[in-house]
């Protein structure tokens, strides 16, 4: 067999937010590396589109709204024992601090912080994770790189990074690893927010040293590394992937 | 929609520019204080006060305050 430290052969991997963007690309990449992937998101039709692009077999669709306790419970009951988790589901927000309402706050924080935290708790309570598993959180460079209107989103990602570091410490005795990926701007629906158009973005991506924003596959490949045994000495890290950009 | 009220609301998105500088013919993007932050503030104004979603590109396509008013009213 050729040397391949990045193989995900026979690993069971859960990917949240797999109906589009980074989640979809990650699910597809995991399947191509030999993993059995459980994909979840709210929209069953779009999950089916993801599944159509996946290689191999043994993949499962479990639609769920992770902001509700019932759906988390149902999802976790249906899960096999996992070797990898990609906590990717999230939403963007661009709103000035003075305009933030409780509705905005709840929407962003429930999706980007509460949902992954509660899902993780349930997976641990039901012991649906194997020793030596790898957990990956898709955070963001926004956590440490401020930009105007990004306060809620940045705060939610900063919180999940802090959470992940503690989780990593608690799971280290079982050799379960926890790491975060912090992408700068990646071409997904998330970055096209109120007020910012694709045309604006195409102009601003030229300011990145590598002259482009990321594509979901760029992030998926890093997730593969973190899910594979190639990264078995890595935990508690948050890795920037930015095309060289220091600011968003 | 009331144009005068809109002009006042719009002027309130600026911290330093005196309200007397604003009328329906003001070229708002020429104001010293105009910035991406005020732009986000105007998007929120349209959303909160009128429940209308407008984009940055749409706002930048407007020259005068009246253009902006017409944009929101047209939606």
Round the Cα radius of gyration of chain B to an integer and report it. 11 Å
Low-confidence stretches of chain B: none
What would you call the shape of chain A? globular
- Biggest interface pair, counts: A-B, 13 and 15 residues
Q: Give the ordered list of helices and strands of chain A.
A: EHEHEHEHEHEHHE
Mean pLDDT of chain A comes to: 95
Structural category of chain A? alpha/beta
Looking at how many chains there are and whether they match, the oligomeric state comes to heterodimer
List how many beta strands of chain A DSSP finds. Answer: 7
Distance between the termini of chain B: 12 Å
Which structural class matches the secondary elements of chain B? mainly alpha
Helical proportion of chain A?
25-40%
Strand content of chain B: under 5%
Our count of helices of chain B gives: 4
Please report the distance between the alpha carbons of the first and last residues of chain A.
Answer: 42 Å
Determine the strand fraction of chain A and express it as a percent band.
15-25%
Please report the total strand number of chain B as a whole number: 0
């Amino acid at each position: 067999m050729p040397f391949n430290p990045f193989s995900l052969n026979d690993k069971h991997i859960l990917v949240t937010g797999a109906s589009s963007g980074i989640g979809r690309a990650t699910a597809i990449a995991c399947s191509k590396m030999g993993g059995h992937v459980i994909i979840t998101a709210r929209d069953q039709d779009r999950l089916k589109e993801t599944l159509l692009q996946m290689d191999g077999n043994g993949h499962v669709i479990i639609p769920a709204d992770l902001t509700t306790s019932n759906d988390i419970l149902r999802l976790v009951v249906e899960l096999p024992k996992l070797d990898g988790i990609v906590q990717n589901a999230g939403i963007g927000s661009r709103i000035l601090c003075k305009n933030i309402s409780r509705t905005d706050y709840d929407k962003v924080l429930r999706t980007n912080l509460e949902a992954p935290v509660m899902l993780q708790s349930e997976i641990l309570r039901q012991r649906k994770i194997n020793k030596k598993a790898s957990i990956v959180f898709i955070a963001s460079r926004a956590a440490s790189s401020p930009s105007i209107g990004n306060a809620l989103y940045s705060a939610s990602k900063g919180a999940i990074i802090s959470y992940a570091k503690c989780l990593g410490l608690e799971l280290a005795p079982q050799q379960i690893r926890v790491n975060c990926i912090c992408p700068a701007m990646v071409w997904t629906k998330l970055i096209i927010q109120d007020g910012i158009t694709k045309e604006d973005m195409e102009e601003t991506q030229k300011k990145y040293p590598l002259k482009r924003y990321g594509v979901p596959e760029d992030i998926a490949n890093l997730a593969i590394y973190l899910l594979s045994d190639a990264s078995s000495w890595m935990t508690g890290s948050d890795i920037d992937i930015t095309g060289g950009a220091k600011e968003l | 929609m009331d144009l005068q009220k809109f002009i006042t609301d719009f002027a309130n998105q600026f911290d330093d520019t005196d309200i007397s500088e604003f009328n329906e013919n003001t070229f708002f993007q020429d104001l010293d204080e105009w910035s991406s932050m005020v732009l986000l503030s105007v998007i929120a104004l349209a959303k909160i006060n009128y429940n209308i979603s407008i984009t940055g590109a749409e706002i930048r396509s407007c020259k005068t305050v009246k253009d902006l008013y017409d944009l929101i009213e047209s939606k």
